[in-house]
Amino acid sequence: xxxxxxxxxxxxxxxxxxxxxxxxxxxxxxxxxxxxxxxxxxxxxxxxxxxxxxxxxxxxxxxxxxxxxxxxxxxxxxxxxxxxxxxxxxxxxxxxxxxxxxxxxxxxxxxxxxxxxxxxxxxxxxxxxxxxxxxxxxxxxxxxxxxxxxxxxxxxxxxxxxxxxxxxxxxxxxxxxxxx
Length: 180
Description:
This protein has 180 residues and is an alpha+beta fold. It is built from eight helices and five strands. The N and C termini lie far apart (37 Å).
């Protein structure tokens, strides 16, 4: 292998959590709990070269459950042209003030930050919420500091699932001292 290429094999646990509702209802609940990143206000802080505590305050007050939506992709309109009936909206969800705490150790963590999530299913339901476990993704960097923040994200994701009325896997709560 070329000396300039470093291959890292990693695996992640993917969860498909079934909801007792249809995809549109779950999407509405999710988007209420995870609002869009306040791009104009972030851009203003960057333009002013504001001190980092201002960013921490802005994001802390903007993300009621610790996460913001950075991108939303509703795939159904395009794929319905091929005859597909399922709906799926994928998201990039995260918190750049948390990502920065990992970035300082290894900027390539941005491969997984923000997190990818998807809400999908047949229009009448049931809906599914799908994501890869952050602790697995960030644990693959070989850094105890990054791995610990990945486990913190596991716990935040478990709290968000609880808020959405979805069952949270014990492996997410395990980072809070609960059994894995």
